[in-house]
């Protein structure tokens, strides 16, 4: 077999992996492949430096991932300044996203599903609020804007509720908590062979987490720890004099560098891999050549076997055909790569979503193997600005001290000229015949140098604003009091940030698909929930998966639902796992400030074209933050009844703003100064 450097790096002399535990060896090689790949090596270094430039201070002096320049200047007591222009640009971008959040909703695939998908959308809203999905999505967006890549995980935690579990969302840092196949090219990772989430765990905590494997793990770690701690005593270049071949009883272990990635004997910590990997299985089906509809299960509702598929196709060979297809499945295993042990392995715990990984990445900018965020191209001008301002201050501190000069004789102490911070006088002897001058001051010609350094620093600050983002580009200028003006400025300024938000929306849609599957898996028993209509603010009870409605036909189901509503009982959502729907990112913003801005823009349109006001009023009231939108809308409709004397709507006089104010019972709020 040809030499495999990754396999060679994973092998430890004198210890073979356990027989039959090939999955642990595969996962170990996957981790080494990802960890040592050019893509993940560069991203780890660059993302750490990008984060440092965002935080500011010492980290902004990093050059080629080293702060050596900062340390040297600091040690020599030179001026070292850090003027952080990176953070405000990230904050402008992140602040805009936070104030313009959009909800994840369900859209019906057919008209008959409209009411069910509306209830499902409100259930998704409920789960998003309970699991803090908007906050985690914003955190993911912020991390991606800084480093270029972030990741969301959508899972179910069964540790407290062992049967149903609870939906949990988390933000993972790629390269530090999760890695995946470096050869993957798809945005959604569907072409990745594996995704590895990893964590360092103290051995005692590991025994407590997996008590059934505690003894086996302890023995393996004890053996591995002894080998790693004794490497220094058994190298061929060390040991007893005259025995450069090594000790015959303790064979030399030349390199355990790979083991250091998996086990730390000093702190007794071990790396635990949660490996999600792609697997395949063959599926038989019988296809109707005329109708094209496939049959995948037999009369007992079991997957077709080869024999059953052949037998079914032979019943009508002219119309039916048995075919075999390879189906992709995702499996999950918990592995200790240091000891080649597989703790657990099985199919994906998400039985209704076993074709995709539960992880959704957010890519800010990606071109081939290059990934970067907003900070990456700001680092050079930021470095130059910090160094030039520091140099300018340093020069002024050294040479701006006025030192008296007088004619006395030869310089009594030549070293005094080498001390830039000294303020001692500089005596000197006049040459024969030279006129004796009165005492004066030594003023070095620094003005041109100072001006050049200052101009360079200012120029770099301007370049950063041109390269990145600022409040005005994001439509946050304070003098934009008009809702329409704000919207237009946003449209102009958003161009430079289009990719950030477009990819954010793409990630949100993929994440929404995962979330909807978790909701369908979580709510499999009858539950009564208190949901809120986000458009009207109305709260009501909903019964999810009612036992009485599970076996009803479509017509019986509609009758049952109508009777429930007539009787004032909780609304009913039947079996979310069986629904057909699409996941969308809602076009209506979810945050109050963004909704208010759009509402003011609609009000301004309605003021100019009053004929459109009755059409726009429902949208305006839905966007405004009102505690009783439904009641306000009803009062407005009542006020718009036709007057028998004038033949016009009673609330038409005075313009749209006055009509809305009358319905509200108070003046309209002032338009926001920003978004």
Summarize the model shown.
It is built from 19 helices and 20 strands.
What do these coordinates show?
39% of the residues lie in helices and 19% in strands. It has 675 residues and is α+β, with helices and mostly antiparallel strands. Strands 4, 5, 6, 7, 8, 9 and 10 form a 7-stranded antiparallel sheet that branches. A hairpin with a 4-residue loop joins strand 6 (263-264) and strand 7 (269-288). Helix 8 (203-209) runs antiparallel to helix 9, helix 11 (379-399) packs antiparallel against helix 12 (447-467) and helix 13 crosses helix 16. The longest helix is centred in the C-terminal third of the chain and has 25 residues, at 498-522. The radius of gyration is 35 Å and the shape is globular. The two termini are 63 Å apart.
């Amino acid at each position: 077999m040809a030499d495999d450097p990754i396999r060679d790096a994973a092998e430890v002399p004198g210890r073979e992996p356990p027989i039959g535990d090939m999955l642990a060896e595969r996962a170990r090689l996957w981790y080494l492949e990802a960890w040592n790949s050019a893509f993940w090596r560069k991203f780890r270094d660059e993302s750490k430096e990008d984060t440092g430039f965002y935080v500011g201070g010492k980290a902004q002096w990093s050059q080629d991932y080293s702060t050596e320049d900062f340390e040297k200047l600091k040690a020599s007591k030179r001026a070292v300044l850090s003027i952080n222009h990176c953070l405000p640009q990230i904050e402008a971008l992140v602040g805009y996203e936070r104030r313009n959040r959009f909800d994840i909703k369900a859209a019906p695939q057919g008209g008959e599903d409209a009411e069910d998908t509306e209830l499902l959308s409100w259930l998704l809203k409920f789960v998003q609020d309970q699991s803090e999905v908007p906050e985690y999505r914003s955190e993911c967006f912020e991390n991606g804007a800084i480093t270029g890549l972030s990741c969301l995980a959508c899972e179910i935690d069964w540790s407290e509720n062992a049967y149903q579990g609870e939906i949990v969302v988390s933000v993972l840092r790629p390269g530090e908590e999760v890695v995946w196949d470096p050869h993957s090219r798809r945005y959604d990772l569907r072409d990745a062979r594996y995704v590895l989430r990893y964590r360092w765990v103290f051995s005692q905590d590991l025994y407590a987490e997996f008590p059934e494997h505690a003894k086996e793990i302890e023995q393996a770690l004890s053996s591995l720890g002894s080998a790693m701690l004794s490497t220094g005593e058994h190298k061929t270049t060390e040991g007893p004099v005259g025995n450069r071949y090594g000790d015959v009883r303790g064979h030399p272990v030349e390199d355990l560098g790979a083991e250091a990635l998996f086990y730390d004997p000093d702190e007794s910590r071990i790396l635990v891999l949660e490996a999600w990997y792609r697997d395949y299985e063959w599926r038989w089906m019988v296809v109707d050549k005329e109708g094209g509809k496939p049959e995948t299960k037999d009369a007992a509702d079991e997957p077709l076997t080869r024999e059953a598929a052949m037998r079914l196709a032979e019943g009508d060979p002219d119309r039916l055909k048995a075919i075999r297809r390879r189906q992709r499945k995702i499996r999950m295993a918990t592995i200790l790569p240091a000891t080649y042990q597989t703790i657990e392995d099985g199919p994906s715990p998400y039985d209704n979503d076993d074709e995709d990984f539960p992880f959704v990445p957010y890519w800010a900018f990606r071109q081939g193997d290059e990934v970067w965020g907003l900070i990456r191209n700001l680092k050079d001008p930021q470095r130059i600005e910090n160094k030039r301002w520091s140099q300018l201050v340093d020069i002024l501190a050294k040479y701006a001290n006025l030192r008296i000069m007088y004619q006395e004789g030869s310089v009594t102490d030549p070293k005094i000229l080498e001390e830039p911070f000294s303020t001692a006088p500089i005596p000197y002897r006049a040459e024969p015949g030279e006129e004796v001058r009165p005492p004066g001051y030594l003023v070095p010609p620094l003005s041109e140098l100072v001006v050049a350094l200052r101009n360079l620093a200012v120029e770099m600050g301007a370049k950063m604003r041109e390269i990145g983002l600022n409040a005005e580009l994001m439509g946050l200028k304070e003098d934009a009091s008009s809702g329409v003006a704000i919207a237009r400025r946003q449209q102009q300024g958003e161009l430079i940030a289009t990719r950030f938000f477009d990819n954010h929306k793409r990630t949100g849609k993929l994440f929404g698909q995962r979330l909807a599957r978790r909701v369908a898996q979580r709510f499999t028993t009858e539950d009564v929930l208190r949901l809120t209509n986000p458009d009207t603010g109305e709260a009501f009870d909903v019964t999810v998966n009612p036992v009485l409605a599970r076996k009803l036909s479509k017509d019986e189901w509609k009758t049952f639902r109508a009777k429930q509503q007539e009787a004032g009982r909780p609304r009913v959502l039947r079996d979310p796992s069986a629904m057909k729907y699409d996941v969308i990112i809602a076009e209506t913003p979810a945050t109050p400030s963004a909704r208010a801005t759009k509402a003011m823009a609609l009000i301004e349109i309605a003021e100019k074209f009053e004929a459109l006001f009755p059409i726009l009023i429902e949208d305006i009231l839905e966007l405004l933050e009102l505690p009783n939108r439904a009641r306000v809308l009803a009062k407005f409709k009542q006020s718009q009844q036709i007057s028998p004397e004038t033949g016009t709507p009673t609330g038409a006089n005075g313009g749209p703003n006055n009509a809305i104010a009358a319905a509200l019972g108070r003046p309209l709020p002032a338009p926001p100064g920003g978004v």
